[in-house]
Write a structure and sequence with these properties.
alpha/beta, two-stranded antiparallel ribbon, 8 strands
Length: 220
């Protein structure tokens, strides 16, 4: 809870319009209070109030001028922003992507995952198809995704192991899993239209989501 409270306090500090304007200025370079006041047309006492809040929340620091020790500059702390993200989630096993048939979305997700994380990945379906969807294979070829065209769709019960982190990538799988999944992504089934455009859209969405989530998971 201490880390959560620290993040709450930091976001609260950044939620003020005046303080956010100061942070925007300091993102480019260091400034004194008087320089900030002049740049923003803000009263000096208000600048002092806002910068004190930012300093207390660990977002900025004060440094003395090397030339004139009476002068102080405010400096943004880059680490303050990288520390605002959620604490990474440990994964003891693999990341397992689950869709209905394990023929398109989950297969593509498994193949894409390898480019973003060292955590092993697998895929499964609630009602496995006989083969990987040709549209998924074609999309993988177009986007240079290392999808195995000879992969055999498998059921979740065949694949899942204790410690696996389960991500459902379709609504039907999520609703049938009844809370068994750890994360749900509501991604439309490209096989319904079967068009290249639909599969390309799926690839784009999976890449975007995986790039974000992979950074939030760490091997236990």
């Amino acid at each position: 809870m201490d880390d959560l409270q620290r993040r709450v306090d930091a976001f609260a500090a950044l939620g003020d319009r005046g303080r956010l304007r100061i942070v925007d200025l300091l993102a480019v370079g260091d400034m004194s209070s008087s320089e900030i006041a002049a740049a923003l047309g803000m009263k000096s006492n208000l600048v002092a109030f806002h910068t004190n809040v930012l300093h207390e929340r660990g977002i900025v620091r004060r440094v003395r001028s090397e030339f004139d020790g009476r002068r102080t500059y405010l400096q943004l702390i880059p680490e303050a922003f990288s520390a605002l993200g959620a604490v990474p989630t440990p994964v003891a096993g693999r990341v397992v992507f689950v869709c209905t048939a394990n023929s398109a979305r989950s297969q593509l997700a498994q193949a894409i995952w390898a480019d973003h994380s060292d955590i092993p990945a697998a895929s499964a379906g609630m009602h496995p198809a006989d083969r990987v969807n040709p549209g998924a294979i074609d999309a993988a070829t177009r986007h240079r995704i290392p999808l195995d065209p000879d992969a055999v769709p498998r059921s979740l019960d065949q694949v899942a192991r204790p410690g696996d982190f389960l991500i459902s990538v379709c609504d039907q799988a999520h609703e049938q899993m009844r809370g068994r999944d750890d994360v749900h992504w509501s991604i439309r089934d490209p096989a319904k239209s079967g068009s290249a455009e639909a599969f390309d859209t799926t690839v784009s969405e999976l890449r975007s989501r995986i790039a974000t989530v992979a950074a939030q998971l760490v091997a236990a």
